[in-house]
User: Fold this.
Amino acid sequence: MRGNAIAEKSMEFAVRVLKLSSYLRREKHEYELASQILRSGTSIGANIREAEYGHSRNDFLAKMQIALKEASETMYWLALLHRGGILTEEEYSSISHDCEELLKMLVSITKRTKEKQ
Assistant:
C-alpha cells in the first residue's frame, strides 16, 4: 500500500470515519447514521485494495467504480449529519474535504481506465 496515494488516503479517511462513528455513538447517541457512515466510509478503501489485485482491467475498473459509489454515499451521510445539526460546520468541512479529494481521485482513475480500454 505504501507509495499508492489513493490507498494511503483512503486508509487515513477510513480511520477518520472510524473515529467519527465512535464519536457519533458515544457523544451524540446516533447509532443508525454512525453505522451507515462507518460502512460506506470504510468500504472505499476496501474496494481500492481489492482493485489493486484485480484479475483484469475490467475487474480493476469495477472495484474502483464501487469505491467511487461508496465515496459518493459517504458524502451524502456527511451532508445529512451536517444539515441535521449533528456535525458542526467545522467538523463537516474537515472530513467532507477529505472525502471530496477521494471522490476527485476516483473519478480521475475511473475516467483514465475507461479511456485505456
